[in-house]
TrEMBL record:
SMART domains: TLDc (SM00584). Residues 517-532 have a biased composition (Gly residues). Residues 152-216, 503-533 are annotated as: Disordered. Residues 169-186 have a biased composition (Low complexity). It comes from the Eukaryota. Residues 332-501 form the TLDc domain. Coiled coil: none annotated. This is TLDc domain-containing protein.
Amino acid sequence: MFSWLIGKTAKSSELKEAESVFTEAELKLIQNRFSEEVARQDGTTLGRSARAHGFGALDVHGLGALLGPVWKCLDPLIASQLQLQLADKADGKVHLSGLVIAKARAERLGEQASLEFSYRLLSADGRGAGYKALEAAALSCLRLVGAVPWPSSSRTPQAVGAVTTLQPSTSATSSSSTGNVSVSGTDPPAQIRSRNDQGTDNGFTDGISSTYTTSSTSSSNNNLQLHLAAFCQGALMHDRAEQAASPVRDLHLSYDGYCKWTKKCPVLHKALCSLLRQVGAPSADATTATAAIAGQGTTAAALAIPVVATSGTDPLRLPALLQLGKLHASSTLLQPVWTWALASRLPPAQRVEWRLVFSSQRDGKSFNTFFSRISAAAGPTLLLLRDKAGGLFGGYASQPWAKSGKYFGDASCFIFSLLPALQVFPGTGINENFQWCGVGFSQLPGGIGFGGATAVRGHFALYLEPSLDSGMSRPIATYGNTALASEQVFQIDTVECWLLQPPEEDPSGSSVSGAHKPGGGGSGGGGAGRGSILGKAAEDRAIMELAGLKLHSAGLKDEPLEED
């Protein structure tokens, strides 16, 4: 297939394996797209040299043109690492064979190959993924999905300096605080230096403030910095036990730690593995978007990026946030970083539209209003809370909320902490105490919650009191979680609940069908089933279940009285 590229040299086993996972048509599209960019370089020194030797190759400018709007989103550190993965070690240029191999690893050769691909983008010097690399990657991906603004000045596609291919005898210079590789010295390119000299935001300085530099002090920028810090800290905590004495910014995430973190929070891995999807894509929209950004700068980029991001690439699709009412999007608890991170755990059908069914900022702290809204939401929901100490946390409920004297939900439920650090806790499988809704019972916990200790009444992983003034979060085996809030018993500042898919039409006129109600039978008592002996005493039965007593009468039917 690629004989024009490699001449008489036999194909490597890596290239053969990579080619085998693409169809002939897909390989042809990749080759054609690559050839177009090589042809554009024909008048340059690189282009003439490549043609003279009978093969084509791209420098960093050509790679930027090949990736189009994706490249323009990348922080220079991540752009440099991507080029290193694609480039040939002999000449530092990107050849077609390297592009095909990298694309196959990222997209087609299985979970281990894709994890290695994304981890290498974050691990510049072999020490592991450092804070700076995690921050740069998260910021790049947030730009890609349009979740955060681009820098005020667009840049010509290029990495920071000339990327040096690491040879065995070459030692990379690393930062003492983060361990990330410095490429070709420490000075930025002339274009970026000149913008810095003019006091213009370029968006590529070090640290959390790299999103918006120098003079910007708005609250939204500060919030983004805080949220990026929480995202990075949450990732690095997976290796914290081995590096407990080190500050967070000096930690490095090992490959094993990265794999564990990715299972709980896959968003960064999925996004990094999608960086090459545009190469060889048949979408005319992607080509149009690339041309628009190349010629018109950031205004066109802001419009074109979502087109590229949503062209068959689910990891890069963010849900539309609807029904905010008088609230501005920036005032909600569900800020872009959290939408991006949490949506990656959900199936595609639940990443289309998220509707704000309740907000204490908008609707007040009325539990009746709160429960009527969430119980009318016929679908999975996302509950978010902020406590008065600043902690931000919540849970994903897979089943609609409805009064029940027993636990319900399924293994897709999870709880999470967002601030001060992003941590996700899926079900452990130890028990099935995923969701709780004891509203209306006099002797059972009357609020809603997640996770519970079966034999200990009133212990929850996350629980809201009916007053909406206080709650509880304790370590519980259901989710294997730490306490989510600032304190185990916390005071509530704000509550939000989002419906994660549009309500479905119900021909019967009921907002929640019986099949979705806890208990499965639609009886509202949620436990014994219609007609069982204890069905008329659901609360007593629930108390016995919470105490760990076995109910031998469950499922038995009332026999009709015989007539004489």
